[in-house]
């Protein structure tokens, strides 16, 4: 791979995306066997799982990391293929693969159909602006297992293509906020087979078989086709145009062999039983070959062999196993690699065309508002770099820029011992680790990269217009070696040009997860990658022997760099915490930490489940706010009086704030300390040239209107009244919390209120409302004149203390120090004048600094206000997709009932004995109970009770309020009759969860120390 070779026109970068067990790695095996020299024998394709070279991957038979390999097709094209995992726990690897690719092969199992991860990968391809191709795999199972007729199989394939196109169009219109929302929405209305066949081709559909971007394959047996292959066969047979045949080989098109005419549904005679051309000319011949092989009809097979001049060894035809005979014939007649790679070459753009389309996602335009203070040379060079990426300029003189999507560790002994020119390499590594070497998984987007070249490593927060304040976001490094990745193998190369994917040695000390590398400092970094889920499963880790703490610290540092998704942190109690995406991901992290990175015996705690805290009630302001409904706190010196009212935000508004936290942080200008207003970044938006603040404001208003209409039951007058009240509050948003971008709001007090005599109220700010566009900045700073200017100035200086008190309160609620959820606080802080200066100094010495007193008063008032309004616990919910045979349905429902699950949907899969069940399960119920001996996690219990027949896939869906009152005490006669008096009421679920968190955090818990005080209880029953 050298810059003197051919241009980027003959390069393709693709990734394989699919749900787990839909055949990605098997497909990759066949492509490798036919297109990468002698790396893999064709007989082993589909069995060896070449791209799954980790022991854990082979043992579990699932892919756990994305890996790349370079293929050659037709002696002209170089195809960089990235195989990615399908399990939801490793969706971060899908994000890293998608960022480095220009196109995606989206696999769907023809039997199982669309699943939850199919939604996720389609969304990821859409976010990263990839050009997708659809591959319908396991077509053979429709014949051999389900025994479908060609017409039934056609209807099934038609339904899958229609459903996948519907998902993509929904994402284009931004109809759903998450993958779970799109799954629960389901197809719009029930579509019968008859109506499905009459659906005309829509030019706006992403996947159209007649356009050649849909392949029908059996990856295990190594055969596949697109409509192009059969169009060529029938065009030569009937002497017609191949293009006309290809357009007609899908949809309601019918072929009349007598007149040799292609007609639509209207051109058929009344009562005609004609089949669509795809059934008649494609599926029926396939069914005939399969039936002939399974029934032992040698004559039919010989006819096919002679017709297409296939060279098949006699011993394969004489094999007694019909599957081997079928595999031999079909793989020669319709080779899988030819169908897939020809589709890739025709439908997926080369790097130059792809980067011009993806540039708005990769390097969004920045709008500079203050050009006078910025060097024009910096801006012109940054613009040149962006143009280089847009054109994929691979000239040696062009600036070099690349993106590292992840760091991965390999044993040092696996590095090549010789370089690109045969020289002996010294692989001691700059990381100082003799056993593990870190390589960067990178794509070059512009220029040429050389081994030994000096480059700059830019973090995602780097800003070239403020170079003097950006030293911590840029580093200078030297590249040691470049490698072409061939699965597990590495081939040294001297240089690599734009459009190629390489592994880079020498950046282990400079990059933690991902970064931009460039030959110049005057360029913007690439936009950050977007992950589909967050690492929610947390465990604390400690060494079995305290003397091994140093080894653990070193191992955690290496693990954090080697895994693109794991998060390593230190809790407030001093515990080392690992956060993973799920059980399988966590098990792999534990194994790597024990065996590769720390190499010491370790102990892991039970999962640390996170909760949120909120209040009971709806979001109707007329019900939520009363004049006397506030909590009042006074500072220790008596000068400050703080009044706090708490309001519950509408649920959909809370969800919008939570899911758009990253965009909010950039729009508001508080994320990572970014408070300068000199420039406004147009953060990467999926839709081009759309101001993110406007889009966010639109989402907030839509969520608010939806919640109000739902709550008022479409009573227009009441809805308008409530909306006007909320709009007044949205015009006074001072801050969000916790961490400045959370789902809680701090509202500035009403300016129209008159201050009590001789006191001054802290006016606050409407900074967030200004940034979101709810009010004009020119009118937001109007403040009434104050009589006592010194007192007003003092109140203005202490605004930050009110703000900090709000952040502290929302970060740790009153129930169990968990963050608050969906609450709005109106804080009115009044300052009264002090007698004289000497008294102020004396009070400060006695009660502490005034800023600290104000912060404590605001925090205590916010927490007390929550306690006053019936607090509730909010727990995370998993969306669970279960597949189980009918005979184990009872056992599966019993397991779900014990886990407080809520069933959403249950349906039987078409032409299959499996039932598909969708349910919500609380996160706390997924893991084993540490207080109960021999307790099992949800997946383990499900496998035990269904004898391994049921499988579950979990994805974090949303936060849901637990309706139980943690402080419930029977008061009415009915409650006392049902639950007994207060002393004998057992703790409810909410109280148990709260007490568990408080014990873990070392907070006081109300426990019964003495259970039975009347007499000594012994094991012997001597009464």
Describe the structure in your own words:
With 1023 residues, this protein is α+β, with helices and mostly antiparallel strands. Helices cover 36% and strands 21% of the residues. The strands form eight sheets. Strands 15-14-20-11-12-19-16-17 form an eight-stranded antiparallel sheet. Strand 29 and strand 30 form a beta hairpin. Helix 3 packs parallel to helix 4 and helix 16 crosses helix 17. The longest helix is centred in the N-terminal third of the chain and has 23 residues. The protein is globular. The protein starts with 10 loop residues before the first strand and ends in a 22-residue tail after the last helix. 43% of the residues are buried. About 4% of the residues have low confidence.
Number of DSSP-assigned strands: 36
Largest sheet: 8 strands, antiparallel
**Head-to-tail CA distance between termini:** 89 Å
User: What is the number of helices?
Assistant: 34
User: If you average the pLDDT, what whole number results?
Assistant: 81
Helix content: 25-40%
Task: Give the strand order, joined by hyphens, for the main sheet.
Answer: 15-14-20-11-12-19-16-17
Global Rg: 32 Å
Strand content: 15-25%
Taking pLDDT < 50 over at least 5 consecutive residues as the criterion, the unreliable ranges are 429-433, 622-627, 671-689, 780-786
Overall geometry comes to: globular
How would you classify the helix and strand content by structural class?
alpha+beta
